[in-house]
TrEMBL record:
Chief location category: other
Keyword Signal: no
Family: Belongs to the FliE family.
Disordered: annotated span: 27-51
Pfam family, one: FliE
Organism: Parasphingorhabdus cellanae
Entries under InterPro entries matching the protein: FliE (IPR001624)
Protein name per the record: Flagellar hook-basal body complex protein FliE
Location(s), subcellular: Bacterial flagellum basal body
Record keywords, A-Z: Bacterial flagellum, Cell projection, Cilium, Flagellum
């Protein structure tokens, strides 16, 4: 895969993740508006997250995209929906997320091999 394609894939992945984060922020703000008699939801302690946490979150996000794509495909095959564009879009998002995650994994393995080959 050429570097131009890789850069465009990474840019698209980052755009998707940024949009998802913005939507989650909006959802959190609306869910924090509690009416009378309702308890406000508790939030996790916000602090610096480690690389492992970020990697886990990214993998879970890719898993969610793949599950959504599978559900949309099944719904289309069963005749429950006629929106082929939404099905193809969800499949493309899942594919893009998987490819991006695979490239990150390859870079991590390459960095690990480089570190292991360093002389002390």
């Amino acid at each position: 895969m050429s570097s131009v394609n890789m850069n465009s894939l990474m840019a698209a992945r980052n755009a998707i993740l940024n949009r998802n984060n913005a939507l989650q922020d909006i959802a959190n703000k609306t869910s924090n508006l509690s009416g009378p008699g309702q308890a406000a939801p508790t939030e996790k302690a916000s602090g610096p997250t480690g690389f492992a946490d970020q990697l886990t979150d990214a993998i879970q996000e890719v898993n969610k995209l793949q599950a959504t794509a599978k559900a949309n495909t099944t719904a289309y095959q069963m005749g429950e929906t006629n929106d082929v564009a939404a099905v193809m879009l969800s499949k493309h998002k899942a594919s893009l997320g998987f490819e991006s995650t695979l490239q990150v994994r390859n870079k991590l393995l390459s960095a690990y091999k480089d570190i292991m080959n360093m002389s002390v």
